[in-house]
Amino acid sequence: MTLTLTLCLAPGLSRAEISDGVVRIGVLTDMSGAYSDLAGPGAVIAAQMAVEDFVAHQKPAFKVEIVSADHQNKGDIASNKAREWFDRGQVDVVTELVSSTTALAVMKVAKEKDRIALITGAGSSRITNEDCNDVSVHWAYDTYATGNGTGRAVVQQGGKTWYFLTADYAFGHSLEKDTTAVIEANGGKVLGSVRHPFPSTDLSSYLLKAQTSGAQVIGLANAGSDTINAVKQASEFGITPKQTLAGLLMFIT
Predict the structure, then answer these.
(1) Topology of domain 143-247, per CATH?
(2) What is the DSSP letter of 148?
(3) Topology of 2-138 in CATH?
(4) Which of 102, 146, 174, 233 has its CB 3.0 to 4.6 Å from that of 124, i.e. a possible disulfide?
(5) 9 vs 39, which has greater pLDDT?
(6) Domain chopping of the chain, boundaries
(7) Would you place residue 5 in the very low, low, confident or very high pLDDT band (cuts 50, 70, 90)?
(8) How much is the pTM?
(9) At 20, is the pLDDT very low, low, confident or very high (cuts 50, 70, 90)?
C-alpha cells in the first residue's frame, strides 16, 4: 500500500492531479466467490489497515480513502466498475484484482484513463509479459514462478508423467502453459489436459478423465475453491494416493 501511495505522489504529479486532492484507492475483489477466502472482505480490511498505518506514521497533508466493490470474477464487471471509478468516483488507483481475467481487463482501462492498476491478487504471467503496460504494477506471484517451483520439484522427485486439470480462463491457461514448459525441460511428459469451467463445484467428470490417463501426477492448474473441491473429490473417488495431486497454487486460508 505504501508503494501505491508513492506511485500516486510520484514526482511531477501535483495535488490537483490526484483527483480531488484525496488519494482514493479502489479495492476491486471477489467478495463472495471462488477466491473470497484468500481475498475478498479480508483484502478490504487489510487495505484499510495499511492506510491507517501509513497515515499514523507518515502524517500526510492529504486524505487517503478506501472504496471497494465485488467484481464477481468477471472481466466485464471489473472493467465497467474501474471505468466508473476513474470517470466519476475520482479513484486514483485500483488494486487487488484477484483472478487474472479481471486484472487484465482493468489494466486496459487504467492505460486508457492514465491511472494506476496495482495487481496483488492475480497470477497470470501475461500481466508482466505480453499484456504489460506502463501504468500497471504486478505485486504478487505469477504462473511462471509457481510453475517453476512446483513443476520442477515434482519432476525431479520422480513425477515424470502429468495430466492437467485446468481452470478455463486466463490464469489456468497460463499456469498450464508455464508448468508444461518446465516439465518438458526437465525430462517429463504431459499426457493431456482437461479444462473445467471457472468456478466449479462438481469436478467429477474432469477428474475421471485425469484418472484414466494413467499419469503419475495430476496438475491442478486452478486455485481457491476449485482446488479445494478437486482435492476433496479426488480422495472421494479413490484417485489419491494412487495418483499424486500437484497443487500449483495453494493458500492456507
Answers:
(1) Rossmann fold (3.40.50)
(2) I
(3) Rossmann fold (3.40.50)
(4) 174
(5) 39
(6) 2-138, 143-247
(7) very low
(8) 0.88
(9) confident
